[in-house]
Amino acid sequence: DRPYLIGGKKFDMRVYVAVTSFDPLRLYVYEEGLGRFATEEYSSTPSKANAKNKLAHLTNYSLNKRSEAFVRNQDADRDDEGSKWSLTAVLRHLAAHGCDVPALRERIDEIAVKTMIAVEPSVVGKLNQFCYGKGSCFELFGLDILLDEALKPWLIEVNVACSLSSSSPLDKRVKHMLMTDLLHLVGPVPFQRGGDRRHSATQAPATGAGGASDVDATAEAGVGRARHRLARRGSATSAGAVATSARGGGAPGAAPVV
């Protein structure tokens, strides 16, 4: 009940995470994202009217876009105006107000890793049952992160079918570069009918958009801990990704180090 506010309003951060493998777990956190704002000022005053005011307490774009107070972005280069900012603009604002942004990014990466570890057993079971080959599928997740007044990140929701539609120039730029990096990352190839079906599987190439090396992780024998490395993936518009690999039981050592 004590969220961090910008301009008196609640906001959340949409963080995009691509998972190319669950066994071993390999995920990539996109460096750019979106900050989505409520359209009315937040109040913690206990009252029925306040409790029912969804436009002050919920940050969902699908809800707030219907508000008369919603301000659409008109220029992708002005990414800190309106009811939807770029993640870069949000972090820039936080840094200007004393936030340790690298430490915050590290904690968000940790949330992403632990979230995927939590569902790893059930997902791997289904993959082994229904999918041909480990590289035959991938998934893009949208994690919604809320900051409390102490700047601690909290996971609100994980979206499997996150929206990739573009409602503004800022949306278009962020999501266009997101999909560009994602398709470079998974490297889809045409399906070969009647041929070698192994060639129809998506696969993670050794290098992606920006030329960063792929990241691998292997469990250490008898220990069960993982070796982790991170590689940043850049692009012409500075939108990139952090690649994080994790394997095994989700020990504290599985947290990424940015």
Can you walk me through this structure?
By secondary structure, this protein is of the alpha+beta class. Helices cover 27% and strands 21% of the residues. It contains six helices and seven strands, in the order ββαααβααββαββ. It has helices at residues 48-51, 54-57, 61-64, 87-96, 101-130, 169-186, and strands at 11-22, 25-37, 84-86, 139-147, 153-159, 230-233, 241-246. Strands 1, 2, 3, 4, 5, 6 and 7 form a seven-stranded antiparallel sheet that branches. Strand 6 and strand 7 form a beta hairpin. It is globular and about 60 Å long. It starts with 10 loop residues before the first strand and ends in a 12-residue tail after the last strand.
Which key features would you list for this structure?
258 residues; seven-stranded antiparallel β-sheet; alpha+beta
Short overview:
The chain is an alpha+beta fold and about 260 residues long. Helix content is about 25%, strand content about 20%.
Task: Describe the SSE topology.
Layout: E1 11-22, E2 25-37, H1 48-51, H2 54-57, H3 61-64, E3 84-86, H4 87-96, H5 101-130, E4 139-147, E5 153-159, H6 169-186, E6 230-233, E7 241-246
Antiparallel strand pairs: 1-2, 1-4, 2-3, 2-7, 4-5, 6-7
Based on CA atoms alone, the radius of gyration comes out at: 20 Å
Distance between the termini: 29 Å
Instruction: Tell the overall outline.
Output: globular
What's the story with the biggest beta sheet?
Answer: 7 strands, antiparallel
Q: Estimate the mean pLDDT confidence.
A: 77
Strand-pairing-aware structural class: alpha+beta
How large a portion of the residues is in β-strands, by DSSP E? 15-25%
